[in-house]
Write a structure and sequence with these properties.
Length: 477
């Protein structure tokens, strides 16, 4: 049987492996051939692991014994900020060049136990700081659908790895939209789970109260399958939620979908992106869902809140990279010189910018004026979400205000780049789950570029997201 990766899903590959149509080794070899052919241009992968085929052989032995783990023999990729024992992990930064993981992150460990083949680590914005995958120390990641454009960020490598028809799924991390936005720009599905639903143990922290690991795949079914494997309580992560504390919910036949119309119609959203969103909302209405106009007065403040809280956490989390304990070390005449030279050479411009901003908002003269106020408004936004989600099942917005933009187009203006997160940051601030599903295309420079539609639900209501996501997929065919 010919292995056709362009149309293969995790589900179809699993069925073929169980039937014996092909082996995991043959599937992994096909994936590695695609990576070898496309990665030199796309730069999705920072490294292809040399033990990928050995992992595949082990999966074939398990299949031969009659084992049927959910991801057995399926090739996947992980973002470069997730630890995998004995393998390098650099978080896209020169300051961790050559660093080898001493243990395996819980999310990756759960993939391995489910039989997945981890073929490599994907490029990313340095320490997950970016919305375009242009800040990686090891080169820009390109969008497989148009190599002159970005794939989104910071998990652009993980999204591009799926979109270039290599691996069947991947893991990314989402701090302010870093899974959902690249999923939209690359035309695939991406899920940011509820905060605490997936363990962060072994994930290099950017913003500890915001970061969440989640999956990419071609279909909602595949994203759901990956989520079901990596989710669950982890005693190694203090922010992981007890399974018995999570509500048990099932998908519905019809949903009440809240649309914050004034927010969606604000300046800065491309007209054709808004039209694609409105068209899908109308299709969902005609399919039996109830559309409810909602007002969320605090929602427009989400981006400002995020760019105070996130840098503050960045400045704290990245203090450990000092040239003393691990990673790059540049010797100076004095200890302070060693710190300054190591961090100055090891960190890129965007990381340095956010560290400085975070240190500023935490400083004695500005802590109350900025950080404390942002914490209070965060609580207000969270309460607003809770109140709205008692009346509606889902909140819908576009995923991103524009399709994939040109490489270099926004790097000179950080504020323009930050605005790419306008629709996604609120899910991280409030901890609710969000999903991006492909929602057709818009034309730029004569090319059809994908856009996404985002849905957010109440905490631990991921089944609602999978349910509405599958409806969007059906309506889009």
């Amino acid at each position: 049987m010919k292995i056709e990766l362009t149309t293969m899903t995790i589900q179809s590959a699993h069925e073929a492996l169980v039937r014996g149509d092909f082996t995991s080794r043959a599937l992994t070899e096909a994936v590695l051939e695609v990576i070898a052919a496309k990665n030199p241009e796309i730069n999705a992968f920072a490294e292809v692991f040399d033990d990928a085929l050995a992992q595949a052989d082990a999966a074939d032995a398990r299949l031969a014994r009659g084992e049927r783990a959910p991801l057995l023999g399926i090739p996947l990729a992980i973002k470069d900020n997730m630890l995998f024992i004995g393998h390098k992990a650099s978080s896209g930064s020169k300051i961790l060049e050559g660093y080898v993981s001493p243990y395996t992150s819980t999310a990756v460990e759960r993939l391995l136990k489910a039989g997945a083949i981890i073929v490599g680590r994907t490029n990313m914005d340095e320490f997950a700081m970016g919305s375009s995958s242009e800040t990686c120390a090891y080169g820009v990641v390109k969008n497989p659908l148009d190599v002159s454009r970005v794939p989104g960020g910071s998990s652009g490598g993980s999204a591009a790895a799926v979109a270039m028809d290599s691996v069947l799924g991947s893991l990314g991390s989402d701090t302010g939209g870093s899974i959902r936005q690249p999923a939209a720009l690359c035309g695939i599905v991406g899920l940011k789970p509820t905060y605490g639903a997936v363990s962060r143990y072994g994930l290099m922290a950017m913003g500890s109260s915001l970061d969440q690991i989640g999956p990419f795949a071609r279909t909602v079914d595949d994203v759901e399958a990956l989520f079901s494997v990596i989710a669950g309580k982890d005693p190694l992560d203090g922010t992981s939620i007890e399974d018995e504390d999570k509500p048990y919910v099932l998908p519905k036949h019809s949903y009440r979908i809240g649309v914050p119309e004034s927010f969606v119609n604000m300046e800065g959203v491309d007209d054709d992106v808004r039209e694609r969103f409105s068209s899908m909302i109308e299709m969902l209405k005609n399919a039996g869902h109830t559309i409810v106009p909602i007002e969320m007065p605090t929602l427009p403040l989400a981006l400002a809140i995020y760019y105070i809280l996130m840098p503050a956490e960045v400045s704290s989390n990245l203090a450990r990279f000092d040239g003393v304990r691990f990673g790059l070390r540049k010797e100076g005449a004095k200890l302070l010189d060693t710190y300054m030279q190591t961090r100055g050479e090891g960190f890129g411009a965007e990381v340095r910018r956010r560290i400085l901003l975070g240190t500023y908002v935490l400083s004695a003269g500005y802590y109350d004026a900025y950080y404390n106020k942002a914490v209070l408004v965060r609580r207000k936004l969270t309460d607003e979400f809770k109140a709205i989600l008692k009346d509606v099942d889902l909140i819908a917005t576009p995923t991103s205000p524009s399709p994939a933009f040109k490489i270099g187009e926004k790097t000179a203006d950080p504020l323009k780049m930050y605005l790419e997160d306008i629709f996604t940051v609120s899910a991280n601030i409030t901890g609710v789950p969000g999903i991006s599903v492909p929602n057709g295309t818009v034309v730029r420079d004569g090319k059809d570029l994908p856009v996404g539609i985002q849905f957010m639900a109440d905490h631990f209501h991921e089944p609602y997201l999978f349910g509405i996501g599958k409806d969007v997929e059906r309506l889009s065919k």
